[in-house]
Amino acid sequence: EVAPCTEFDKAYFHSYAHVGIHEEMIKDRVRTETYRNAIMQHRSSIEGKVVVDVGCGTGILSIFCAQAGAKRVYAVDASDIAVQANEVVKANNLSDRIIVLHGRVEDVEIDEEVDVIVSEWMGYMLLYESMLGSVITARNRWLKHGGLILPSYATLYMAPVTHPDRYSESIDFWRNVYGIDMSAMMPLAKQCAFEEPSVETITGENILTWPHVVKHVDCYTVEIDELESISTRFNFKSMMRAPLHGFAFWFDVDFSNFATSSTNNHSSSSITGPSNDPLTDGSQRKKRSNPNDALVLSTAPEDPPTHWQQTLIYFYDPIPVEQDQVIEGSVTLSQSRENRRFMNIHLEYSSGGRSFIKESVMR
Amino acid sequence: EVAPCTEFDKAYFHSYAHVGIHEEMIKDRVRTETYRNAIMQHRSSIEGKVVVDVGCGTGILSIFCAQAGAKRVYAVDASDIAVQANEVVKANNLSDRIIVLHGRVEDVEIDEEVDVIVSEWMGYMLLYESMLGSVITARNRWLKHGGLILPSYATLYMAPVTHPDRYSESIDFWRNVYGIDMSAMMPLAKQCAFEEPSVETITGENILTWPHVVKHVDCYTVEIDELESISTRFNFKSMMRAPLHGFAFWFDVDFSNFATSSTNNHSSSSITGPSNDPLTDGSQRKKRSNPNDALVLSTAPEDPPTHWQQTLIYFYDPIPVEQDQVIEGSVTLSQSRENRRFMNIHLEYSSGGRSFIKESVMR
To answer: Which one of A90, A92, A183 has the shortest CB-CB distance to B180?
Structure first.
């Protein structure tokens, strides 16, 4: 009952055979250094142990694990980049400790239980690419009871945004083009610029309220079927008067100690509470400087930028909101039926007595 | 015997239905203002006359022509952007003077001769997209004897380039990645980074010699079949000691007065001479500040950047060259057989006693 490898999966794996995507990820210092620090911080759980690196790419995380003293690392990747990973491992004289397996985690064979899973599986909006399913498969196939998963938790956030400059550059621009009124272009401009989610970097100043938790993932317990469709209701209260241009999504992941994970069960508590509940917000904010000093890799607008940036869903027209005005609604993120690597985003929102629905697809 | 509209042509036209490409072109002030200035400079040839705008896009050049006093402008575009062009024309109360024709120049009907053709047909490396053929078709179908074509001439240049920073960022980067020797990635990095032509902005400092004219196009006389394949031999002498990383291509177009064009026949003279012939070079440089004050839209590295940037073809490995070292060879640019909008680039070059061949495709 292994999921078949579709043509879409093949195209997905092939996209990782190009060097550019690995160069971009590796050059993202926030990403790569946080992973390295997390691996070194968990050295005591890695030393002398067996690790599997799910989607190893060029093999850099596997090498960090070897540097942290892993006895054996299975570096698994379905993309042809595994060929290069193997060359890198050989050139670094690590072939005795890092075993590159060129195939899907569903298909490759590992004849022992593993102590640690490390994986950099996060896509835009956390769940785009649907790679978390491979981590779950690896966990269910090979992870020892009491084993470690790095990262351990992931949280997807959303918040209402104002971004007058962006709107003006793309839309108002057409009002006066070298002295010509080209506003007849504006309907097409709105449709083209704002039909699909936009990956771009915004700042904390674009955010109108504290974020809402769309989904908290506990990598120890999450199962594949709960990722097919995720729904949440939100209820924001704007902290200022501004034109509301859309919603921003971002995530963070948490390299907790295993000890922490068994005592906290974030997943059930943080999905339900509305984001403007002060208690929920408090716990969200605390997570980022949590008492166990677990490392957090954050892609939030107020944190240093990463290659994930933030994902924006713009409305066709801004909604003017007053301070304390309520913005409420719901969002459903679901894997596209045609290609589970794509994500359908169904957004319903209302504010100031008007309601809207926006459907978009992240391809 | 009209060329059929292929699926590739449809995809090509469809790519111009998105607003982004028009926004980018219009926001390129060097491009748009040079066209506007050229149209205004030729006001005496446009006033009270009939114009056809080949590939009108949003219609902005047609409106400039109406502002310059054209009696009637046929704005032709095969892309659905023609629908918006028509809306823009209506909103500006120009429907009586600008007639938007949604179709290919091969297919639409214009029941009169035209005095002026204006078109912004240039692609990357001048000829990518093969849109010049549509200008030729329009000229052969409708242009009056003695009519004006804007722009009138186009010249494609090439020059050897050194670009150590770019090479280092993409290739040498892998030598030391967070302390790990990942140089096993370098063959893939070279292949991925340098297989296809790269559109990027360089500066005059990257150029090792005066440029060579690959092709000079006289829009009054050029015929479609001579664009299918263009070959030229080059013979450069490096003006400095540097690693040679590849060749850059760029172009300029010239909005000459018609009077000039009939007396000069650039096309036959400038293809043949090798670029390091001082006489040929002299005439090349002169063109850019020519005595008739014809406006030039230049995309050269030493001029202000445009959205065309420059097109670079990188070698897999740099060639060290000394001052005065000869770099010679040939280049053939041909329309791809599978899709004439694509361009095959066949490059043969030798220097310091070694010879190389590089094939690439611009898709």
So the answer is: A92
Q: Who has greater pLDDT, A357 or B267?
A: A357
Chain A, 87 to 126: residues with Cβ < 8 Å from chain B are: 87-88, 90-92
What is the predicted ipTM?
Answer: 0.88
Class of residue B293 by CB neighbours under 10 A (exposed 0-12, middle 13-18, buried 19+): exposed
* Predicted pLDDT at A292: 56
Give chain B positions within 8 Å (CB) of A177.
26, 60
Question: Chain B within 8 Å of A189 (Cβ-Cβ)?
Answer: yes
- Residue of B14, B19, B169 to mutate, interface with A, max A Cβ within 10 Å: B19
pLDDT digits (tens, 9 = 90+) for B268-304: 333 333 344 433 443 333 344 454 578 999 999 999 9
User: How many Å lie between the alpha carbon of A111 and the closest alpha carbon of chain B?
Assistant: 28
Strands B242-255 and B212-218: unpaired
Shortest CA gap A283–chain B (Å): 34
Q: Alpha-carbon distance A75 to A51, whole Å?
A: 8
> How far is A86 from chain B, CA to nearest CA, in Å?
9
Q: Which residue has the tokens 């990357």?
A: B124
Bridge partners, B71 (sequence order): none
Among chain B residues, CA nearest to A19: B189
Given an 8 Å threshold on Cβ–Cβ distance, is A181 in contact with B58?
no
Residue numbers in B near A84 (CB within 8 A): 184-185, 188
Q: Read out DSSP for A141-166?
A: HHEEEEEEEES-EEEEEEEEE--HHH
> How close is the nearest chain A Cα to the Cα of B188, in Å?
7
Considering CB atoms only, which of B84, B180, B182 is closest to A188? Answer: B84
Q: Are B329 and B160 in contact (CB under 8 A)?
A: no
CB contact under 8 A, A177 and B91: no
How would you class A21 by CB atoms within 10 Å of its CB: exposed for 0-12, middle for 13-18, buried for 19 or more?
middle
pLDDT digits (tens, 9 = 90+) for A91-116: 999 999 999 999 999 999 999 999 99
Residue at B235: amino acid letter: N
Extended strands (E) in chain A? 50-54, 72-77, 98-102, 114-119, 143-150, 153-161, 198-200, 212-218, 229-237, 242-255, 295-298, 310-321, 326-335, 343-351, 354-362
Please indicate if any CB of chain B lies within 8 Å of the CB of A361.
no
Q: What's the pTM value of the predicted model, to 2 decimals?
A: 0.89
Question: Is A40 at the interface with chain B, CB within 8 A?
Answer: no
- What is the SS3 string spanning chain B? CCCCCCHHHHHHHHHCCCHHHHHHHHHCHHHHHHHHHHHHHCHHHHCCCEEEEECCCCCHHHHHHHHCCCCEEEEEECCCHHHHHHHHHHHCCCCCCEEEEECCCCCCCCCCCEEEEEECCCECCECCCCCHHHHHHHHHHHEEEEEEEECCEEEEEEEEECCHHHHHHHCHHHHCECCECCHHHHHHHHHHHHCCCEEECCCHHHECCCCEEEEEEECCCCCHHHHCEEEEEEEEECCCCEEEEEEEEEEEEEECCHHHHHHCCHHHHHHHCCCCCHHHHHHHHHHCCCCCCCEEEECCCCCCCCCCCEEEEEEEEEEEECCCCEEEEEEEEEECCCCCCCEEEEEEEEECCEEEEEEEEEC
Residue A178 to residue B33, Cβ atoms within 8 A: yes
> Nearest CB to A184: which of B84, B181, B192?
B84
CB B62 within 8 A of CB B53: yes
* Residue among B23, B26, B182 minimizing CB distance to A58: B182
